[in-house]
Every structure is written in structure tokens, then in C-alpha cells.
Amino acid sequence: MSDIAEIKPIHVMIVGAGLGGIMLAILLERMNISYTVFERACEQLGLLEEVQNISLPCLRMDIYDNKIEQIAFVDVSNYRERSGYDFLMFARPDMHHLLFSKIPPEKVLMKKRVLSIEQNEHGVMIRLADGSTHHGDILVGADGSYSGVRQGLFKLMEKKGELPEVDKANLKMGYISMVGVSDPQDPGKYPILKEPTSNFSRVIGDGTPLSYNTVTVPGNRICWGMTMQLDTTKASKNIMFKNSEWGPEANESMIKEIRNFPSHFGGIIGDLIDATPKEMISKVFLEEKMFETWHHGRTVLIGDGKQKAAWLFFEGLATVDINQHYLLNMVTRWVHGVLQPVISGGQGATNAMQDAVILANCLYDLKSNSPKYITKAFKSYKEQRYPHAKYQMDKSKTMGKVLYGQTLSERLLRYVAFNAVPQKMQDEQFLKDTNYRPILTFMEPPENRGSGPVLPQKPSWRYQAKKKQGGEATEARLTIHYKPDRHPVSV
């Protein structure tokens, strides 16, 4: 009986209202764990389409040279048979809005930028740019590759001589990506919009560092993205910070370089750019780095805060190419949450949400809110996620060379990948990723609707104990309340 006693009240502070941060908030809401989300931006992304119009199924991805002659394709028509669900395409802002709508708005504080953090055995405190301070038991850094939480945590660790040398090195920039989502377009001008499935096309530059892609999404809109391979770092740390993530930036020079490139859909890329509101165009630096430090004390990192890979294939589309049917069930009908992985590259948002699922499972199994048990939970989170995150990062790096590389060796690699590797082998490698499907272990597991196997996952000891104690309960909730007048960390 004492083994499953409810723990003392805890409060989780989530810094970053991106897909990973909001996903974690949804799961904490489900478990009735107190939390607050702090976001430095002044407004939400999205508010574009209704939930029922968020996605279109995709059956294949076509790859062209800069003369719009097809050089390869990726067949995903058997994805549903293997996983049990369609391979979905949707605009990133739509997904963000969907997730945002599932948590109480008063729990998300906008225009809140973290300047510093402090933590001890009693709790953790964040100091914001507006001068306010906030306290909690756990701090989650979900604020992207230039994470203010990670920077603050690393400063604390470096002062104590606890920061690994590998984590002191700067991020390595390999690409610049610009993305946009057009306004609704005329199907008469773009007949491909009449198709019931999403059309994905990628054009690989020849002798130019620029490549670009287009994808159709619901609402007669077209997501587009361009990616430039960098030879050297072209921006200072300050510029990188200001241009990080998905906020609109000064993009005219990059747009000018690609404006007259032909589009597979007809016309030129400039037509799609002109049809895109400025607030729906943004530029982001893509880097590669796996941090050794995922957590320390009462602070833990998820998503790009703990690793940053050039999630290239779809991140440059402002789309998330994931079979998120289980996820959509969970956030719209509160069925069971399973996050389906994607082809390497474009994994960034999925990676962050998978982090959120595993971290939520670990927090559910907390035996105490003492530093000892919080550290144990964080270690379990890293042990479960690290191998999969590392695998996707390495795969994304290889795919980046295949899809964007312009060096002689990278062109040779691309030729071999598109011409020498049997299609069956390509399909099997792609579908292998569907075997990893993180689930919420504090709920009954969903059935496997596909033909492919599912990798085993660490079960929840608390949920299993509750089932034995109380019978076949369909789900479990922690009854936790937070007293906001506590100030465990001295200012």
C-alpha cells in the first residue's frame, strides 16, 4: 500500500511553448500535475484550420533535379499496412494550434523570457526578463536549440566544474532553412490541390547550395521550404540567437536567390512566396549536436534543448511529417498516445513530443519529489530516449548529405542512394522506424493495428500496482495540488 502512496504536491515549470513543451503540458494536465508554461513569444502560432482539416495522407515523396526531372521517389503507400495509420502531412502551425487548444490558456504565460535559473535541494527558481521570479519543483527546458534554460543550467554547472567538456563546444551550423505556409490558392492555377492526398516534391540544386521543397496541405495551401548548405559559420552567436526558432526575420536576400527557381506545381517558387503572409515566413539555422547533459538537479531538457540535429527532410517545410493518429486521438478524444516516427530528417518536432511522452511517464512514477527521486526519474528518461534520439540524429545527418550535399563525395552518395540501393531495402529501412511507438504507460496500451512489430517499452510500476490494487481501471491519475505561495529557492 505504501509503495503507491501519492507523492507530495509538485509544480512543473515548462519553458517554451513549442510542440514539445505544449505536448508535455497536455500530459501533465491529464495526470493532474500542476504546471505553468512560460513562452518568450508574444502570441501563439497558428489559428489556421479546424481540427478535422489539419492533415492530408501522403502516399509518396518525389525528388527532382533543378530541371524538374524526377531522379527518385520514396513510396510510403504501405505505411498504413505496416503501422496501422496513414502517413500524414500538415502545416506545423496547425499542429501547434491543435495542441494549444487542449490546455487551459491561463496556464501559458506569454512574453516571458528566462534570464537565469537557480536550484537547490528544495526547489528551482527562474528569473524572467520582466523582473519577476517563479518557483517550482521541476524545471523543463523545452525552449529550442538556443535554450535559455540550457544556457542557465550550463552556467550553474560550469561554476561548479560539473559541465562536461563536450557540452562547452558551440553548435555546428550546417544549413540555413527558410519556411512558409501560403494563403489558400486557386485549384485552377494549381490543379494538384484538387487531389485527396498530399503531394510532396523536393528539388535538389545542381551546383548551387540551395534546394527547396513543396507540400500541399488542407485548405488549398502549400507549404514550401528552401535550404542552403553552409561552408562556414555565417553568423555570430548573437545573430544565431535572434534568428533561432520560428519567428519572422529579415529574409529578403535568401528569397532573392531562389525566387525564379521553377516549381513542380507550376510557375516559380516566387509565386508561392508572394502568396505567403510575412508572419508565416521564417528562417532558422540548422545545426547538429548531441549534448551529454540532459538533466541536472531539478532541471531537465527536452527536444532541441538537449540535442540539435538538422532535421532536414521536412523541418524545412514548416510541416511535421508524422503519422500522429494516436497523438490526435489522445489530444482530441483522450485515447492512448503513441507517437509514430518519421523518415530521418524532419524529426525535430516528433522527437520533442516523444521526449515529452517518456518524461511524463517518468514523472508519473515519481516516488518522492526529493532530489534523489527526481534525478532517478530524469536518468530513466535519458536512458529510454537517448538511443532513439541518437539514431535519428545520425540518420538525419546522412539524409542531409543525400538531399542537400554538393561536394563530390556527397553527390556520389546521392547517386548510390537513388540508383544502387534496391527499392525494397529503402522501404524496409523507412518502415523500420514505425516499430518505435512511445506510449503513455499510465493508460491502457493501444492495440497494434499494423502488421509491423512494436518495440517494447518500460512499464509504469505505479500504474501496474494501481491496477492490482483497484482492478481494471482504464487510466490512472495523480491527485496533486500545488500551493503557489511556496518559495523554496532564495532570491
Features:
alpha/beta, 14 helices, FAD/NAD-bd_sf, 9-stranded mixed beta sheet, FAD/NAD(P)-binding domain, monooxygenase activity, FAD-binding domain-containing protein, FAD_mOase_fung
Can you describe this structure in just a few lines?
This protein has 491 residues and is an alpha/beta fold. The protein contains 14 helices and 18 strands.
Q: Unreliable runs, pLDDT <50, ≥5 residues?
A: 42-52, 233-250, 310-346, 472-488
Q: Treating each run of at least 4 consecutive H or I residues as one helix, how many helices?
A: 14
Alpha-beta classification? alpha/beta
Distance between the termini: 39 Å
Task: Return the CATH topology.
Answer: FAD/NAD(P)-binding domain
Classify the helix fraction into a percent range: 25-40%
CATH architectural designation: 3-Layer(bba) Sandwich
Mean pLDDT: 77
Organism: Modicella reniformis
Protein name: FAD-binding domain-containing protein
Keywords: Membrane, Transmembrane, Transmembrane helix
GO molecular function: monooxygenase activity
